[in-house]
Amino acid sequence: MKPANLKQKLKSLLEILLVSTRLGFTSFGGPTAHLGYFHAEYIRRRKWMDEKSYADLVALSQFLPGPASSQVGIGIGVMRAGVLGGIVSFLGFTLPSVIALILFAGLLVTTDIGNAGWIHGLKLVAVAVVAHAILGMAKNLTPDITRKTMALFALIGTLLWPSAWTQVGVILIAALVGFLVFKQHKEEESAKTSFPITKRVSAICLLLFVGLLVLLPILRELTGSVWIAMIDSFYRSGSLVFGGGHVVLPLLEQEFVPTGWISKESFLAGYGATQAVPGPLFTFAAYLGTVMKGWTGGLIATFSVFLPAFLLILGALPFWDQLRNNLKVKGAIMGVNAAVIGILISAFYTPIWSSSVLQATDFALAAVLFSMLTYWKLPPWMAVVAGAVGGMLL
User: Fold this and answer.
1) May I ask which residue range the UniProt record assigns to the signal sequence (predicted)?
2) In this predicted model, what pLDDT tens digit does every residue of 28-54 receive, in sequence order?
C-alpha cells in the first residue's frame, strides 16, 4: 500500500473509532434508539451513506438474527474502511458498555439502580431520539399513500402480536407486496456503495457461522470444558435472536440460571445495570461472563455473543448490495423499507414510550429533548446530558 493511501486509511479508521466511541458513550435507549443516533451522526451530519443505503442496511439487519443496531454499525464501518473499519466501529460502539458492565458485575449485584432519576431521564432521551429518527426516515421511505399504508399494517401487526417471528413475517409479506406493487417502479439513480470484500470471503463467513453453530455443541460434549460450554451458550444465543437485544435476555436466562451458573437475583441485578449503560443490550453477556469467570470470562462472553452478528453482516452485505440494485428486487426492498418504518413506530410505542412517559412532567421533558434535536439542531450528546440532569431534577 502506498504511503498516501496508508495515511488516508489510518485517518479513516481513527475517525471511525472516535465517532463510534462517542456514540458508545452516549447511545442510550436500546436498538431502536441506536438507529436514531446512527442516522443523526453517520447520515445527516457526516453523510457517510445516502438515505436509501442506510435504510437498506437497517432492513437487512432487521431481517438477520443478532443485534440489529450493532450490525448496522459494523456495516457502516465496513463500507467506510473495509473489514478493519467494521471492527473499529464495533469496538468503539461496544467497549464503553462492556467495560462498565464488567465493573458493575462486582459492584452493583445487590444495588437497585432501576429507579434512579437519571436513568429515567435517559429513557426520555430515547423517546426524543427515536421520534426524531422516525420522522426523518418516514419522509424518505414512505412518500406515497401505498407505502404509508404498508407501514400502518406493519405497525398494527407488530403491536398486536409482539414477537420476533411477527417481525420476520411482516418483513417477508412486505417484500412480497412491494415486489408485486412496485416492480415497474423506476428511480433516477441506483444506490452505490463501496464494499471492499470479495464474495468468496463473504461465503467463507457464512460457512463459518453455520459451522460454529454445529461444531461448538459437539466440542462441548466431547471436551467437557467449562470454557467451551460458555462459548457455545453465548454463541448460540447470539445466533438465534431475532428482534434485538431484549429478546436475547430470556435465552441467556435459560442457558445459565437453571444450570446454576448464575443466581436469578444476580441475573436480574445485571439486567438492571444493563439498562443503565449506553450501547447494545447484548453487552449484558459481559456482565454474565464476569460473574461466572471474572473479567476474562466477561471478554470471552462478549466476543462469543457478538461473533455471529459479525459473520452474518460480512457474509450478507456484498450479496445484498448487488440484489438491491436489481430492478426485480428494488420493489421488494421498497416494501421492506416501508414495513421497517411501521416496526420502528411499534417499538417506539412499546417498550420505549410505554416505559418512559408515565406522567405530564415526563412528556414535557421529552418534548424539550425532541425540540433540542429537531428544531435547535443540537448534537445528540447534549440531549443525553440534558435528559440525565432533567431526570434527576424531576
Assistant:
1) none
2) 777 778 888 899 899 999 999 888 889
Residue 113 grid coordinates: 439502580
b vs e for 122-154, b when ≥16 Cβ sit within 10 Å of the residue's Cβ?
bbbbbbbbbbbbbebbbeebbeeebbeebbebb
SS3 183: coil
The cell numbers describing 44, all together, are: 445527516
Return the C-alpha cell found at 379.
Answer: 448534537
**Distance between CA 337 and CA 175 in Å, rounded?**
9
Q: How far, CA to CA in Å, does 361 sit from each of 132, 245, 260, 352, 385?
A: 20, 29, 43, 16, 17
Q: What is the pLDDT of residues 123-174, one digit of tens each?
A: 788 788 778 878 877 887 899 999 999 999 999 998 998 776 787 788 889 9
DSSP 247: H
pTM, two decimal places: 0.73
Instruction: Look at the chain and count its residues.
Output: 394
State the greatest distance between any 2 C-alpha atoms of the chain, in Å, as a whole number. 60
Distance in angstroms (rounded) separating the CA atoms of residues 262 and 249: 14
